[in-house]
User: Which sequence fits this backbone?
């Protein structure tokens, strides 16, 4: 019975050690990612491209353009989502 208890304690200690090492490695990867991440912030009036993949009947989707240009940023809702509009009288897109 001592062998089973001893083995159980060793397995629990190894498991706890590995959890700690995985947590440390995860934190280290996050800090490296955060240092190299490139966050763009757009201001009102900046011109941007809109990714809008459309499939048209009879056309090869590989060769059709997926990006639409000349949209102006109207406002920013948060860090990632913006209201954009193509012209002064057109409907806004989010």
Assistant:
């Amino acid at each position: 019975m001592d062998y089973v208890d001893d083995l159980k304690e060793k397995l629990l200690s190894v498991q706890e050690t590995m959890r700690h090492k995985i947590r440390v490695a995860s934190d280290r990867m996050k800090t490296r990612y955060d240092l190299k991440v490139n966050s763009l912030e757009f201001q009102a009036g900046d011109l941007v491209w809109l990714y809008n993949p459309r499939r048209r009947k009879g056309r090869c989707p590989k060769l059709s353009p997926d990006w639409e240009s000349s949209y102006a940023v109207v406002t920013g809702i948060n860090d990632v989502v913006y209201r954009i509009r193509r012209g002064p009288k057109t409907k806004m897109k989010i």
Remarks:
- The beta strands are 47-51, 67-76, 82-85.
- The longest strand covers residues 67-76.
- Helices lie at 2-36.
